[in-house]
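Lines hold sequence, tokenised fold; shown next:
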Amino acid sequence: MVRPPEELFPKEVFWREHYAYLKEHGYTLRDRYHPDWVPSWIKDPSKRVDHCEDSRRLLHAQVIDAVGADGRVVIIKDVELNTEYVVEDIPVGKHFSSPDLAKNPRNHCVPILDVLDPPAGSEQAFLVMPWLLDYNYPSFETIGEAVDFFRQIFEGLEFMHANNVAHG
């Protein structure tokens, strides 16, 4: 069964339920996830649903785009506490985001900008990272661009290994 665009999926409801919490911490989600959201095409019937930004669903349920208090577009990832990701990966990510390592030109790790502890009664913490494009968008136009891409991948991997981290 296809859901109408004004009906939120369960994970979208999760984000709506955390809208105020994230806003309190300086991150604003799209209007679709505001607790009082009314679809723009319902407010203005002259609009086509497929032309309305708030008809777009999440591509990946665990991450959502937001705007920080400084106007920067970010990605917020929800992470369940007491998982391997929280126990191992967050400290490693924070290590590579530390001021000394972050300024190293060989460090190509996506920085963690913020870690939000879970709200009361929740088992979900939130990681805030910069919003990035997929590695292949836009497409490489020259061989040099592809070579530079792989150089950065291998340089970043070597940097991680030099800092006693193996990526698996």
